[in-house]
Amino acid sequence: MAVTIKSAREIELMRAAGKILAKVHQNLGKALEPGMTTLEIDQIGEEMIRSYGCIPSFKNYQGYPASVCVSVNNEVVHGIPSQKRRIKDGDIVSLDIGVIYKGYHSDAARTHGIGEISENAARLIKRTRESFFAGLRFATAGCYLHQISKAIGDYAEKGGYGVVRDLVGHGIGSHLHEEPEVPNFRKLTRGIRLRPGMTLAVEPMINEGTGNVEWMDDNWTVVTQDGKLSAHYENTILITKSRPEILSITEDEIAGGIWVPEGSL
User: 43-58 pLDDT, tens per residue?
Assistant: First the structure.
């Protein structure tokens, strides 16, 4: 599949999908509390998605059985929700969620601390989010894709963290996964030149220790090889003629000054 340039109509649909996904993330994140099962989290998330007239992107995608990937502590991504798994005070929980709105996808992830978390865990979550924004500085028409990758990886590694190399970001649009792949680490090549109308899911997956990972027996859940913590921060972004547009940024993040939308400067 070639890299697609989205039309004005497609961009508007993806903006709508992103705004809905941002609301789901914001509300579901606030609903997390110790004692909840990961299955309860998934059920609440799916109800939210469908309440906006959307379809969960992940449910039954290549056999994945849930609407929300719920990954706890050393789980990097693709944790399968379970009635047997309860989150507890001190855990960190990554929620990876996708929605389909009128045929177009948005994909985003956030890692949340449950109750009182350790300083190391809080620092990991913060550094992972910051690595995304380090890469975003190069998400501009005329730059090359792997400038984003290099900036993400260099920022995370400078902080002493491991960058996952077995999993990468991706293009997104009428399909959940489109070209190009978006690595979170240095590449020898420049990658494609970015053009207005490209839409990408940029998603640093950063580990407290080594960047090496392995798959559990369920063939979905990815965990850190050394058992240390992992955090995940992802947004769907639009490449424009000027600064990029984050389609899945939450209102709380904007209010907190994490990102100022175009036109608000």
Answer: 999 999 999 999 999 9
DSSP annotation of 176 reads S
Q: What is the pLDDT of residues 175-205, one digit of tens each?
A: 999 999 999 999 999 999 999 999 999 999 9
Q: Based on C-alpha coordinates, what's the Rg of the chain?
A: 17
Structure tokens at 175: 């399909």
Task: Give the predicted TM-score (pTM) of the model.
Answer: 0.97
- Helical pair 145-158 and 119-136, crossing angle rounded to 10 deg: 160
CA torsion, points 219, 224, 228, 233, in degrees to nearest 10? Answer: -90
Distances (CA, A) of 209 to 78, 90, 227, 231: 19, 18, 8, 11
H or E segment and range at residue 46: helix 38-51
Please check whether residue 81 is in contact with residue 34, taking contact to mean a CB–CB distance below 8 angstroms: no
> Residue 243, Cα to own-chain centre: how many angstroms?
20
In angstroms, the CA 207 to CA 131 distance is: 12
Residue 46 φ/ψ, nearest 5 degrees = -65, -40
Q: Taking a C-beta distance cutoff of 8 angstroms, is the pair 132, 149 a contact?
A: no
How many other β-carbons are positioned within 10 Å of the β-carbon of residue 262? 12
